[in-house]
Structures are given as C-alpha cells and as structure tokens.
Amino acid sequence: MSPSIGPSFPMAPEKSEKSEVQTRWQRSLEDYCQKQMWQPPVWNIISDRRGGRTAWSATVVIGGVPVSARYWYDGDYLGNAKEDAAEVALGLLHKNTSQTTQSV
C-alpha cells in the first residue's frame, strides 16, 4: 500500500502561543477596522518567480487602498507576509490619525 499524498500546501498550525503571536498584527488591524465601522481588511497574496524559486508577499486593502508588505518571503512563511502588511497598514493608520488629531 503506497502512502497517501496530502495537499501541497502546509496545514494550518494548531492553536498555540506561537501562532497567536504570528497573527497579532492581523487581528489588531481587523479590530481597528471594526472599531472604525469599516469593511474588514481584504488580503491579497502575490508571488514573483525569482530564478528557480518563488518569492511571496502580501497586500491588504483597507477602504479601497492597498498597502503592501515591506518584504518578500519563502512560501513556508506566507503568514509573515500578511503580518508584515498588517503592521505597515496599522502604522499608516495610526500616523494619519495622529496627524489629523494634531491639526484640529
């Protein structure tokens, strides 16, 4: 009997302290959008073939505005790309909120 072949993508990790940390920025961004009564963030995964490998990154769209992750990642670390995009988006949102508050 030959072994069964599973899906080619990694299975979702079990809930653990490590996975909690890996989604911290994404959850913070979702909470921020909910408090502002905005639509939830929309995630887009992008890839770029580089030589013999593929690099992966993410964008998150908030209110129709796309925000890109700063870095490209190996496919095993796609969650990091989403975290990166969420962190960048929150930084921009907090910066804009702070500038608006100061100008009032």
From TrEMBL:
Lineage top rank: taxon: Eukaryota
Position of the signal peptide: none
Location of region: Disordered: 1-22
Protein's UniProt name: DRBM domain-containing protein
Natural source organism: Orbilia oligospora (Nematode-trapping fungus)
